[in-house]
Automatic annotation (TrEMBL):
Belongs to the diaminopimelate epimerase family. This is Diaminopimelate epimerase. One of its GO terms (cellular component) is cytosol. The gene is dapF. It comes from the Bacteria.
Amino acid sequence: MRDSKTKLRFTKMQGIGNDYIYFSTFGQWINNPEALAVRLSDRHFGIGGDGVILVAPSKVADAQMKMYNRDGTEGKMCGNGIRCVGKFLYDHGMVNIKEKDEITIETLSGIKSLKAYTTDGEVKTLRVDMGKAILDPKLIPVDLSGDKVVDRRVTIGMQDYRITCVSMGNPHCVVFVDSDIDNINLEEIGPLFENDPIFPERVNTEFVTVLNEKTIKMRVWERGSGETWACGTGACAVAVAACENGFCKKGDDIKIKLKGGDLIINYTDETVYMTGNAEKVYEGEVEV
Ligand SMILES: N[C@@H](CCC[C@H](N)C(=O)O)C(=O)O
C-alpha cells in the first residue's frame, strides 16, 4: 500500500545568497523538519538550499523562527534567515508595514527586533538587533582557558592558526589571514575546524581578510551546511572579532563583503546591529 502524501506550501528566499526553504506553520503542519531539511536542501534531487526555516506562531513575539541546517541539525540563530522571516511576515500580510515597521521574532537564542525599510512599498532591507556578542569561551562554547579567546594560537589538522571566538547565539571561530581567501581550500579545512574537539558543539568558521578599517572580506564554512554564500551571524562575529583584535572600531558601520553580497555590521558593548537585504525567489508546493 502506498503512503499518502501531503502537499506543503513553501517560499524559497535568500539573503545575500544564503538561501533557505521557508514553511509557514500558521495553518499547515510540518512533520519531522529535520528530515525535510536533508531531503529538500539537496540541490540535485530536492528544491535546493542551505536548509529549511519554519515561520511559526509565538506567544511572546510576532512570530517564531526555527532553522535547520542542510544536515538536519537545528541552529539556534540565523542572521540571513531572520531578515527573510521578517520580509515573509510583511509579504504575506501577517504584519502590516503601514502600521508597524518594527517587529519581534522569537529564536532559540532569544527575541530579536527587526526594523524594515521599503522601496516602492516593498520590504527590501531589514536591520536586526542581534543582541550582545558573547566572548566567554564557556558560553560559546570553546574548550580553551581565559575570559576571551582573541588571537589565540591553536593547532587544527596539524596546521597552526590564530583564532578569535565569538557567539552570536551560535558559535563562530574567526581566522584572519593575509593571503587571498579565494584560494583557501574550504572543503578540506572547514570540516577540520567544524569537528575539532575544542568545539564541543561544532563551530561555524570564517576566514577573513581586513581590506581597511571599515571593510572586511570573508568566506564561511557553516556547521551543518558546509560553505555557504553568506552567513549573517558569521558577519557579526567577524566584525566583533575585528574590533577585539584592533583592526576596526566599535560603533563604526563595518562593511562585510561575502560571496553573495554585502552586510553592514555595527558592534557596540551593548549590542550588534546587522543590516542587509531579504528577497523572495519563488513560491510553490512540494509533495512530501
Ligand atoms: N547562515 C546562518 C547561520 C545558520 C546556522 C549555523 N549553520 C549554525 O548551525 O550555527 C546565518 O546567516 O547566520
